[in-house]
Design brief:
Elements lengths: L10 H11 L1 H21 L5 E10 L10 E10 L7 H67 L5 H36 L5
Antiparallel strand pairs: 1-2
């Protein structure tokens, strides 16, 4: 598998990308829009219903006035004077749902900022751990080479050479583990940004 590359930029850029790409933000924004529409719809129930009525009639015989066409126009308006308080309750419920949707959106935004901050810190820590493990591996390799040279010179024992070799192998395994942790931290940051494509 290909080694993941860390995203370029800084936290501000990553947060901006995440706000555009992450699905929970998109769904929370849609929920806010729907709740706003519901508030508007419930408020419109207080507005009277207005209807315009018009007729145009034509006849082949002229009437008393000497015209073939007659017309009439009218305007009708209906308003509910008393609805038992249901309109007020609907408005209150719609506003409550809007408040909840906005809270959910704010929570999503806060969670994204926290996810990105944590992933960024984890990535920096993992990178530092890789550098430390590589340094320890280099020291273990030098120690092993020195112990081998001492053994050839007759100054150290075979047990000391074996111990140095075990330390060197352990250091190599530690480097691999730290590099894997670094790759996992990169993927975690990509996922927090919303840029992870498996």
């Amino acid at each position: 598998p290909q080694t993941p590359t860390p995203p370029t930029g800084n936290r501000k850029i990553w947060i901006r990308q995440a706000l555009q790409k992450r699905q929970e933000v998109k769904s929370a924004r849609i929920a806010v829009q729907m709740a706003e529409a519901q508030v508007t719809q419930s408020m419109l129930k207080f507005v009277p219903t207005v209807a315009a009525i018009g007729t145009l009639q034509g006849q082949n015989a002229e009437g008393f006035v000497g015209r073939n066409f007659t017309w009439s126009a009218g305007l009708a308006m209906q308003i509910d004077v008393y609805s038992g308080g249901t309109r007020f309750i609907e408005v209150k419920e719609a506003r409550s749902k809007l408040f909840q949707a906005r809270l959910k959106l704010a929570k999503s935004l806060r969670q994204i900022r926290n996810d990105i901050a944590k992933a960024d810190i984890d990535l920096k820590n993992a990178k530092t751990a890789v550098l430390i493990a590589r340094g320890q591996s280099l020291l273990a390799r030098r120690s092993y080479a020195l112990t081998q040279a001492q053994y050839k010179a007759g100054v150290s024992t075979a047990v000391e050479v074996s111990d140095a070799l075990n330390l060197y192998r352990t250091a190599l395994i530690s480097v691999l583990q730290k590099e894997l942790n670094y790759d996992v931290a990169i993927v975690a940051l990509q996922r927090a940004i919303g840029a992870y494509n498996p």
